Amino acid sequence: MFTPLNLDKDIDKIMGTPSAHKVIRFLTIWGSISFQQLVEFTELSSSQIQATLNNLIDLGLVERLSKGVYHLTQSSFSENLISAYTTFHLQWIGHKLSSLHQMVNENKLQESYLELEVLTVRYRPFLDKYFSHQLSNLSHAVLDQLQH
Q1: Residue 71: enclosing H or E segment and its boundaries?
Q2: Cα separation of 65 and 102, whole Å?
Q3: What domain count does the chain have?
Q4: 12 and 50 in contact (C-beta within 8 Å)?
Q5: Tens digit of pLDDT for each residue in 63-116?
Q6: Claim to verify: residue 63 and residue 19 sit in the same structural domain
Q7: Are both 50 and 64 inside the same structural domain?
């Protein structure tokens, strides 16, 4: 458990790790997520995920909802993290979808399909909430390419 005296140092130490950023990324996207999904999406080992979750729980950033299911807490710090990660991912996913649309227009259907598959598995909640119009346009572009 972290003490208030060392909190700044502890936050810097934990938040400076790629594993913490990966876990927070998917907690932001999914709201609540299972341990197994975190392992799958982050491509980190089970032990890395467990250690990261334990550290984030100790910092008060993550809570366990039920056995193997986690979410970010409702603290102001967590809300600021969610806002920052959401902004970043909205921009990144928008760019990624534009790139995929360009690949489709260049008739790189197989390559674009594989990338879109990974994107939809990992980022489904954001795609559904923020990018339904872009996904529809991408689907129409694929259909146009297949008809030619």
Answers
A1: strand 69-72
A2: 41
A3: 2
A4: no
A5: 999 999 999 999 888 888 899 999 999 999 999 999 998 998 898 888 888 888
A6: yes
A7: yes
Boundaries of domain holding 116: 79-147
- Amino acid at residue number 64: R
Q: Is the pTM of this model over 0.85?
A: no
How many degrees, rounded to 5, is the angle at CA 131 between CA 69 and CA 108?
A: 105
The closest of 54, 141, 58, 50 to 104, measured between CA atoms, is 141
Total number of residues shown for the chain: 148
- pLDDT at residue 141, rounded to an integer: 86
Residues 68 and 92 in one domain: no
Distances (CA, A) of 38 to 15, 23, 78: 17, 7, 18
Q: Which of these, 58, 48, 41, 43, lies nearest to 1 by C-alpha position?
A: 58
Per the listing, tokens 């341990």 go with 35
As a whole-number percent, the residues of the chain with pLDDT over 70 amount to 89
